[in-house]
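Human:
I keep going back and forth on a fold encoding question. Comparing notes only helps if you start from a blank page. Show me how you would write down a chain together with its backbone fold. Write it directly below this note and I will take it from there.

Assistant:
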Amino acid sequence: MYIDTDILNDFRMRIDEAGYGYQTMINEVLREYLSKSGKPLDESVIRQVIREELNRVAHT
């Protein structure tokens, strides 16, 4: 799976605040989405979920 560089960089910048790795953060975001949605998980959905989560975290 390929993730845009800007998205990865955003997650990497948040690791100090989160206290764990960016890959773990991405997995948590995807797990949360899967638990709340009945939509199939494809590349476009993954990108949308990650962007929404980054936007949400940026405004907290």
Notes: Residues 5-58 form one domain. The first helix runs from residue 5 to 13.
